[in-house]
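Margin note: ligand = KG4.
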Amino acid sequence: MSSKNIYILGIESSCDDTAASVIYNGKILSNVVASQKIHAAYGGVVPELASRAHQQNIVPVVHQAIEKAGIAKEQLSAIAFTRGPGLMGSLLVGTSFAKSFAYGLNVPLIDVNHMQAHILAHFIDEEGFEKPPFPFLAMTISGGHTQIVKVTNHFEMEVIGETIDDAVGEAYDKSGKILGLGYPAGPEIDRRAQLGNPKAFAFTKPKVKGLNFSFSGFKTAVLYFIQKQVKDNPNFIEENLNDICASIQYTIIGILMDKLKLASKETEINHIAIGGGVSANSGIRNALKTGEQKFGWTTYVPKFEFTTDNAAMIAIVGYLKYLEKDFTGFDTTASPRLKI
Ligand code: KG4
Ligand code: ZN
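Resulting structure:
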């Protein structure tokens, strides 16, 4: 096999996005995502509906990714897929499809850990985006994850902090639900936060030792606060929405930054990368910039399309594993609780 022309198809189906991507020697040729709109009506991802939508989407999404890449499927060197963590029914669709496709094409199969992929998305070749040097700290923040990981090399990673309950994106989405905002509420809270006073209302930060996070108490604090205020003034939310959003955002970013500062101090690592849907947040981006000035950090934020769930990050891990000839047997199964 020539090491010069490596085409990897990546498939991602761990939650509510069906995605496929083709990369050629580390560069993206296509990156297709079919997001499932159906869950918005329920205010959160409904696993059974997600799995059904993946079944409908997977063939056209893969077809489109290969077509957009301008290659024939016979040119693919290997098929990489998300093995876990994620929703069982969703993972099974991608896993089964990847196995059959690799078997049919007679190419290697490569399993990918979704959380590692969020981190290794930083190694996609993309103009204007620098790759972090080892060792670095990666904070993965999304609707499903909140982790700080010490990354020693591409495949040596250690989770040094993670949420003990809700993910940070859930804190945004659940707070948004209390305020009557649509799902997912993160972007709307972020937009309004920039128009409001972050110190208007005070929410206490959870006291969790070490580098772990907790967000379930925060959500309850927001709920009780709003219930109490609305009792006195039924128009409290409408009259103060931007200030409430700004105060929520201020507290959440404070929680994230406290832990990141501690992690950097404890590990003496100043290169800090973020990923996951919440890394689009203006507050976290500003806080990272402040960290650069105040603590001498160098921070890395990938292109937006590689921060939310996508298959390019799966394909890049596939590529890195391909170079190591780290292939997967066809007896592999989906693993909903897969750890880094
Ligand atoms: O990575 P992602 O697309 O999907 C997974 O959860 O894996 O992340 C979605 C999450 C949602 O909770 C959404 O509210 C949040 O990211 N989000 C934001 C922003 N944009 C998306 N949260 C805060 N500020 C934003 N600008
Ligand atoms: Zn994810």
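Residues 114, 118, 142, 144-145, 309 surround zinc ion (ligand 2) (CB under 6 Å).
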